[in-house]
């Protein structure tokens, strides 16, 4: 019989284990997952950051017309949704969270490199989410100081993170329907307004706009398996992520672009069309409240990513500490250069996904299975494939950080390479990284596998960290 003391250290059977010692419960249905991803697809970023899919120039002036931006956004989101589905399926197959999966791709020690990058970007996303929630809440009612909203959002985020699977099921039961009703309501209200000419502008920079939308989807790629490891089937995990997320992100971004057109491109007034509508404050408050699911997902995945570095760490303790951290950062920072942040995320994780998908579904993962234990040997060849894909992305789109763009501009000059308008940094880096992974794997450079590590994809290490050999 389990003692009262032991029960403190054991999670409920339908909840995420506190450490990586125990296997993940397979309790999320297709509809649980669909509701989760659908809610993540609807974000206040789709309103405040809608201008990014219009490929703004160095002066911040949109290049694309609204119509061109909508098409670019749909294309980018659809491609990003498929990529998100590809990253979701391995989690359901292996039962392993995202960064632990990378032990099979890169080896245990080398998986720490993308893990640290992922922790850094998730802390950034979590901080930005609290800032957006606070700013949107003040747009609803500015009767209290901004810090009050930041702290309240931080507390709500932390509470949701303590019970992650319960939070996912709650989204399905109570939140999703309210969000869908709000979206329909605002579409009706905004389409009743006299819209300006939505074709004014050009189609130049189409792939820059598509990549901006794709980058938002890709931002969830390095965390997808944290949730789909609890899925009942890989097919359901792929479909829920690819379709559930893409549909609602498209719906939300189109709404954001319509609002942007109504305020003549003034991003500082992006919330006005929503708040000025009849009952707009009520329905917009639903968006503000449910934005906490974005910060919740970021904080929870940060905790799980840290567990790849420290498997015995209790995710509840990590969640509380991270909640305090992002709340403090949100009180000190502002939104910053959002477009450059998205570009950086895409340049790192798009080629990483290319390597992962190629090796898991077509390479060693399919032939012999991945070793995801702490004893997994290093696979430098897969790191090389990732670096190649990353370089391709930067050559095509080095982003908006001046010193970084200048460096890659010098590389372009040295190679006599000029990016063409038809080139998509995301697509080409994904394909090049994937092809490099396949080639390196076949010649043995990326396949320093431990003897006897065969089996189905991810079979090695499925029993949990307690039996793993320490690094």
What does this structure look like?
With 471 residues, this protein is mainly alpha-helical. The protein has a domain at 23-337: Hydantoin permease (Orthogonal Bundle), CATH 1.10.4160. It is 66% helix and 0% strand. The protein has 20 helices and no strands. It has helices spanning 4-8, 30-41, 45-48, 66-94, 98-106, 112-140, 146-162, 164-191, 206-218, 224-228, 234-262, 272-275, 280-290, 292-309, 315-332, 338-361, 364-367, 380-396, 402-415, 425-443. Helix 4 (66-94) packs parallel to helix 9 (206-218). The longest helix is centred in the N-terminal third of the chain and has 29 residues, at 66-94. Residues 1-7 and 448-471 have low confidence and may be disordered. It is found in: Membrane. GO terms for molecular function: cytosine transmembrane transporter activity. Pfam families: Transp_cyt_pur.
Helical residue percent band: 55-70%
Taken from the alpha-carbon principal axes, the silhouette is: globular
End-to-end separation in angstroms reads: 34 Å
Strand content: under 5%
CATH topology of the domain at 23-337: Hydantoin permease
- Gyration radius, to the nearest Å? 22 Å
Protein structure class: mainly alpha
Tally the helices. Answer: 20
Q: Please tally the β strands and state the result.
A: 0
Summed over residues and divided by their number, the pLDDT gives a mean of: 86
